[in-house]
Design a protein that fits this description.
Layout (H helix, E strand, L loop, with lengths): L2 H24 L12 H31 L19 H29 L7 E8 L2 E6 L4 E3 L3 E4 L4 E7 L4 E5 L4 E5 L5 E5 L5 E7 L11 E7 L1 H11 L29
Parallel strand pairs: 1-5, 4-10
Antiparallel strand pairs: 1-2, 2-3, 5-8, 6-7, 6-9, 9-10
Helix pairs in contact: 1-2, 2-3
The structure holds copper (II) ion.
């Protein structure tokens, strides 16, 4: 390979790395962050992105180099095999040790952030989430409400979700709060966050759960405490949206909300 080609290749790889890092960090993948204490999760995403893009570019560059440099030439014999060689212990040690250190460091960093973000908060409001083909239903034990409508919550109050499924596996994802967790029949899974910004935000199922999966959406509405009190009163009236589906009372399902902290 000519020296000039090598320089062009190296400069191209550096520019591609920089461009990809800027694009992936600047692009708004998950929407406005509504929970201030979730900011460290965005920092984890940025760190993972910055750490992984150079590896991606290095692997693509090596692949492209090999395809060009070692391609079969027109004068080559079709039946010819490549030159026989044995692996390189030095390279194998390097490509085992470096990724091991990088993955362990990132894993440890992400674990400490998650541990802090998921810590139990005093005065949190419990909401039970029930996923079923193809809707989300919510129960508010404190307010004695069951609804198949929007997930309405007061601003600046820590929320504690206990989640389960009435049928297949679903996944409860609130992009703006940076939380996503599977829900499964017979299990209780949990998430916590505290919304700090008023507004409406999408909730999506992110586990392919059947023919209506794409329609399994809901809306998180973060409202003022006064609006929340008014909403609670309205829910107790007969006109409020009722839970949908065949059996929307998880207390009657065998196994649902077992090991539930709030039912202890
Ligand atoms: Cu689903």
């Amino acid at each position: 390979m000519k020296a000039s080609h090598r320089i062009v290749g190296i400069v191209g790889a550096i520019l591609a790395t920089a461009a990809l890092i800027v694009f992936t960090i600047e692009y708004d993948w998950m929407g406005t962050l509504i929970a201030d204490d979730m900011e460290p999760i965005d920092t984890v995403y940025r760190a993972l992105t910055i750490a992984s893009i150079p590896f991606f570019i290095i692997i693509c560059a090596i692949l492209a180099f090999c395809l060009v440099e070692f391609r079969a030439k027109p004068e080559d014999d079709d039946e010819k095999d490549g030159a026989p060689f044995h692996g390189s212990t030095k390279i194998e040690i390097v490509w085992t040790i470096i990724p091991t250190i990088v993955v362990m460091a990132l894993g440890l960093y992400a674990w400490t952030v998650l541990d802090k973000v998921e810590a139990a908060q005093p005065n949190s409001m419990t909401i039970k989430v029930i996923g079923q083909q193809f809707a989300w239903n919510y129960q508010y034990p404190e307010q004695d409400i069951k609804t198949g409508g929007d997930l309405v919550v007061p601003v600046n109050r820590p929320l504690y979700f206990e989640m389960t499924s009435a049928d297949v596996i679903h996944s409860f994802y609130v992009p703006s709060a940076r939380v996503k967790r599977d829900v499964a029949d017979g299990f209780t899974t949990r998430i916590r966050f505290e919304p700090n910004k008023l507004g409406s935000y999408p909730i999506v199922c992110t586990e392919l759960c059947g023919i209506g999966h794409a329609t399994m959406r809901s809306t998180l509405r973060v409202v003022t405490p006064a609006q929340f009190t008014a909403w609670v009163a309205a829910q107790k009236s007969a006109k409020a949206p009722k839970p949908t589906g065949a059996n929307t009372d998880p207390q009657t399902w065998p196994g649902a909300f077992k090991n539930s902290e709030s039912s202890k």
